[in-house]
Amino acid sequence: MDARTMENKKITFIFAYFPLSLLFFGFIFFVSCAKEVEQKVDEGFAAEQVIEKFSVTDAKNGKTNWTLEADSAQVLDKENKILLHKPIVHFYSELNATSKLVANEGEVNSVTYDMTCWGKCFLENSKGESLKTESLSYNSAEKKIFTESRVVLIRQGQKIVGKGFEATPDLESIIIKNQELAIE
Fold first, then answer.
1. DSSP bridge partners of 158
2. Mean per-residue pLDDT for 123-147?
3. Are 116 and 106 in contact (CB under 8 A)?
4. Residues of the chain with pLDDT > 70: what percent?
5. Would the pLDDT of 182 be above 80?
6. Residue 62 and residue 13: Cα distance in Å, rounded?
7. Residue 165's closest CA among 141, 147, 181, 180?
8. What are 53's strand-pairing partners?
9. Among 177, 49, 67, which Cα is nearest to 153's?
10. What's the alpha-carbon Rg for the chain, to the nearest Å?
């Protein structure tokens, strides 16, 4: 057998089995991806509902306490949780909006209406005073916001930095537990 005949047989072999090998490896790839997706679903949680452009209002005796909007929400009925992506919360006193909270992520207890937000939380009241922190919680029964994280509060022209914080959502009543420094 000469070199040319050997090379032709190699080419014929490659072209004859290439589609079969491509089909085989494609099947293996598809099966491995399907298993990976199944594993991710089994390891994670299963939301009963996924809602885009989610909104809810908490009102008692005809008075709105807060409104919540989020880009999306995952409702976990068994855990009494609603997981939020890009939540925005407007807090009210009487009929007036007193402050607005914006965060990257959040969670609402669907029974107590307590909230926790995390990832660049920013709260601003109607006077222009603001609070920045990495996590912020709201106790619905007490109508208080709080965190154990580092906070930066801008109020009446002062910047106050501390760790640990409790306040009303309108920032009228504030306790900073470990004040680090204040700059005028």
1. 155
2. 96
3. yes
4. 73
5. no
6. 80
7. 147
8. none
9. 177
10. 28
At residue 61's C-alpha, the angle toward residues 56 and 62, to 5°, is: 60
Strands (E), 61-183: 63-76, 81-85, 88-93, 96-102, 105-109, 115-125, 130-139, 144-155, 158-167, 174-183
Residue 30 pLDDT: 42
Which residue, 146, 145, 150, 147, is CA-closest to 162? 150
pLDDT of residue 4: 57
Q: How confident is the model at residue 181 (pLDDT cuts 50, 70, 90)?
A: low
Give residue limits of the domains in the chain: 1-44, 49-183
Please name which of 181, 83, 165, 94 lies closest in space to residue 130, comparing C-alpha atoms. Answer: 165
Query: What's the rounded mean pLDDT across residues 79-105?
Result: 94
What does the alpha-carbon distance between residue 135 and residue 149 come to, in Å, rounded to a whole number?
6
Q: What would the pLDDT profile of 71-90 be if each residue is shown by its tens digit?
A: 999 999 999 999 999 999 99
C-alpha dist (Å) from residue 18 to 89, 101, 147: 58, 59, 62
Residue 61 has φ and ψ, to the nearest 5°, of 55, 40
Section 176-180 average pLDDT: 87
User: Residues 183, 146, 53, CA angle at the centre, nearest 5°?
Assistant: 110
Q: How many other C-beta atoms are found inside a 10 Å radius of the C-beta of residue 166?
A: 17
Class of domain 49-183: mainly beta
Q: Which two tokens stand for residue 181?
A: 């420094």
